[in-house]
Amino acid sequence: MRNLKLWFGVALVLVFVHLFFHNVLLKNPTDVSRKFVVMKSDMDYMLGMGGNVVYRKDLDRGSVASLTRSISADSWTNQLFGKYQAALEDRGWKVRPHTENARWEACKLGVLAALDKKPEFFPALSTETYGVRFEYSAGTISECGP
Description:
The protein has 146 residues and is of the alpha+beta class. It folds into two domains: 28 residues; 113 residues. The chain has four helices and seven strands; from the N terminus they run H-H-E-E-H-E-E-E-E-E-H. Helix 2 crosses helix 3. The relative contact order is 0.17. About 10% of the residues have low confidence.
């Protein structure tokens, strides 16, 4: 009976270790720095179409890379929004079917790009801004594919 409990405990530990490595560690991306370079290049290309960037935040850490920009609502137009979309599509981004009307989304190589369609209040600057975000993580890989 004692040996049976021991074997059962060992089996449980092995199952836990397998699930942890398979579902957590193995699904975390290992090419984050390379994707960050692509993301930055595409973001810079898109922002070259115009718009006044009032906030920037870049993150390239471990298994996550993200770029966040806030564009002043004073410089945002429907034409600029269209130029941003066209710039990303020209660089190989594939538009995602939309489930919500608040933002436009596209994917490229597991990276998710999101452009806000409506402005939000940016408290630090006391102004309205449109958010632009690129993210690469295990979650975006599952949404966008590898």
